[in-house]
Input
Amino acid sequence: MTAAPLVTGDWSGQRERGSLWLVRTMIWLSRRLGWHFGHALLFPITLYFFLWSRGARGISRRYLTRALGRQARAADVFRHFFVFSSVILDRIFLLTGSVRPYRVRLFGLAHLQSCIARGGGCVLLGSHLGSFEILRVVAARDCPVPFKALMYRGHTAALTGLIERLNPALCNDLIEIGSPDAMLAVRDCVARGEIVGILADRAPDSHKQLTVRFFDGDAAFPTGPIIVAATLGAPVVLFFAVRVGRRRYDVHFEPFAEAVILGRQTRQEDLRRHVARFAARLEAQCRAHPYNWFNFYDFWGSARPELAMPDRHCSGAARPVLRAAGPGPAALPRSADGQPGRGAVEPGLVP
Output
């Protein structure tokens, strides 16, 4: 049996794989027939992409082998695809306001509340682990200050737009990376004491990146989010919003830095240290929730040889049920979507 070919190159240049019609159909059927019907549809949809997305299968298997600490099996890859599809289904219902059945537990909320109380704004660094949408929806309903998402849409603009039209008001809280006034808008948000969320685990190849250790290999991470945080001078908190079961999510907040400082003489070393710290925390969450990370391209193949250097980890409306579930990230709970491990062609819909 030959190995599945890797999907290499710039993930941002990968086109949307004929998914518009599928998402449009899924939205139409799910909204009319309900979440349970939509959930039942996920099995044949996942099977279709599992069978036909050979490159993504191979990449998922390689990632899961790292995250699980053992050789990933076909059942693990199918589960990975299925969790991805489930998060997309939940995204549809969350955006349309059907939030009552969802249970969201918040861990380490005090870290974020402390930043908000000081009134100086805050940067939330996240990743393509779990659901960014659950954080946006919860923030829109429950956060005492506005929450803005700084995002790269690029190759999925049409697909993302199709889904986000379900809740146009929420789209007003999005700042698109690459727009002429993006950085000015981010600066103004923080100056007003607002929160800005940034996904920090991937960026187009045209953006600056650094290669650091991630699991057992070198991988390229963008430097932009760290540089933005340093420019703003605001406190930085990590967040990971993971799916732990049917319509159940855990959102973890972790302190990252009171302020990101990049020294004039030590800028590159400081930048590398912060990027490596982020990669280390992402790795820990991927091991705890292996089926929640949705980067279906050759992430380790993105490392640029000329940048690679040995690097060790630096040590009235209906609302979802929200509960502060713990003081911080010291203990990572087991997930219904996967147990902790021992240590872009997408498969279907959207990243």
User: Anything to note?
Assistant: The first helix runs from residue 20 to 33. Residues 203 and 309 are 20 Å apart (CA to CA). The radius of gyration is 19 Å. The first strand starts at residue 103 and ends at 107.
